Amino acid sequence: MKDWVGNVKSVWKISGASNHSAQEREPDDYYATDPKAIDKLLSVEQLNSRIWECACGGGHLSERLTEQGFYVCSSDIKDRGYKRFSVIKDFLKAKTVPFNQPFDIVTNPPYKYAKEFVLKALELLPHGSKCCMLLRLQFLEGQARYKEIYKQTPPSRVYVFSERLQCAKNGDFNGLKASGGSAVAYAWFVWVKDFTGTTKIEWI
Fold it and tell me: Best exposed site among 27, 104, 140, 155 by fewest CB in 10 Å?
C-alpha cells in the first residue's frame, strides 16, 4: 500500500483549520465574504428593514443586502472603496447608533475581535433586535466565550454552512480559488437582544 504523501497545507485543510499563518494574515483581519452568505441567512431569518453592517470592508454583504431591499448603513475602521460606504467608524468604540428606529446588525467581524464585536453589538442593539455574525464554527468553543457570552447571552440560532463558504483575504476571490479555496468552516450566529431560551443549531 502506498503511503500518503502530503504537506503542511494539506494537513491544515484536512483538519479544517485556517491555512493562514499569523504572518500571512491581513493586518486588519479583512477577509471579504461571498455574498451568497446573505442569501443563505435570508432563507432562514427575517431581518429588520434597517441593517448596520459595521465591518463592511469592500461592501460584499452590504451590497447584497441593498439589492434585497434593505436600508444599510455601511461602516468600517477604514474606507476600502465601497461605493455606498457610509462612515469611518471603529465599531468597538461606538457610543451612538446610525438609526433612531429598530435595526439589526449583520456582519463578518474581524475574527481576532469577534468576541468583542458580539458583546458590543448586544450592548448597542435595542430590545428584540438581531445580531447576525458570520463566524468560524470553532467560535462555539472556548472557556472565555462561554463565560462572557454563552452563559448569559446565548445565541438563539446557529446556522452551519453545509458547504464551505469563501472568505477572501483583501477581497481577492480569484487568488483564493487559485490556492484551492477556503479551509475554514463557517456558521451564522444569530443573537436576539434579551433572548433567554435554548440555542438551536441548524444547517444551511
Answer: 27
